[in-house]
Amino acid sequence: TSGVLLMALSSEVARTLSVCFEQHQMEKVYHAVVRGYVEEPMIIDSPLVEEHDKIADKFASHPPKIQHCITHCVPLAKVEKEVAIGRYPTSRFSLLELRPETGRKHQLRRHMSHIRHPIIGDTAHGDLRQNRGVVNHFQSHRLMLHASQLNLIHPITQQPLNLTAKWDLPWQHLINQFGWRGLKPELEQFGEDLAHHFVLSDI
C-alpha cells in the first residue's frame, strides 16, 4: 500500500498514537481500484479472523480471534474497457474511497474481497487472473490501494494534523487510462514530467 506513513520519534509518542488508533480518534482515507461495478455507498460490517504476523507471531500458541471490523465504502467512478479478462468480453472497474472505522490487518483488502470486488493487484486476497490481465493490458504492476489522507490531533501540540499523500505515477497512469483524471485533483500530480510520462505511456 502506498501513501501516508506515520512514524513516532519516541516511545512515549508511539504509545499515545497507539491509543488514538485504538480509540478511533484518527480519520484514515484510502482510495482503491477494484474489480467490477460498485454502484452504491455501503458500510461493510463483517468480522474478520485475526491474521498473525508470519515473523512476529511465528511461535504464537493462542488461537486466532474474531475481530469486529467496519469499512465505509463510497464509489467515485466506474469504467468498462473493451478487454477480455476471464469469461466476459469486457472488463469493469470501480474507483472507491474507503474509510476504515477499525484498523485490522489487511482489513480493506479482505473486506473488498468479501463483497466480491477485490482490489486490483492484491496477490493475497484478490483475483489473480484479473491481476495478470491488468498487468498485460494496462501495464499496472502494483497493488491499487493508496492511503491518501490521515487526520488526527497532534499528540504534543494538540493541534489538528492533516496529512495528505498524492497518487504516485503508476497510480495516475492507470487513472489516466480509465478516464478518471480530474476526479480527485487534490491527489493528482501535475507538471511537465507527469505529462511526458502519460504521453510515452499512451504511445
Task: Compose a concise summary of this entry.
This protein has helices at residues 11-22, 107-114, 128-138, 169-177, 192-201, and strands at residues 2-3, 27-35, 42-45, 48-49, 66-67, 70-81, 91-100, 145-153, 160-164. The protein is α+β, with helices and mostly antiparallel strands. A hairpin with a 6-residue loop joins strand 8 (145-153) and strand 9 (160-164).
Can you walk through the features of this model?
This protein has about 200 residues and is of the alpha+beta class. About 25% of the residues lie in helices and about 25% in strands. The chain has helices at about 10-20, 105-115, 130-140, 170-175, 190-200; strands at about 1-5, 25-35, 40-45, 50, 65, 70-80, 90-100, 145-155, 160-165.
List keywords for this structure.
alpha+beta, 25% helix, 203 residues, two-stranded antiparallel sheet, 5 helices, disordered C terminus, globular
Helix-strand layout with pairing:
Elements: E1 2-3, H1 11-22, E2 27-35, E3 42-45, E4 48-49, E5 66-67, E6 70-81, E7 91-100, H2 107-114, H3 128-138, E8 145-153, E9 160-164, H4 169-177, H5 192-201
Parallel strand pairs: 1-8
Antiparallel strand pairs: 2-7, 2-8, 3-6, 4-5, 6-7, 8-9
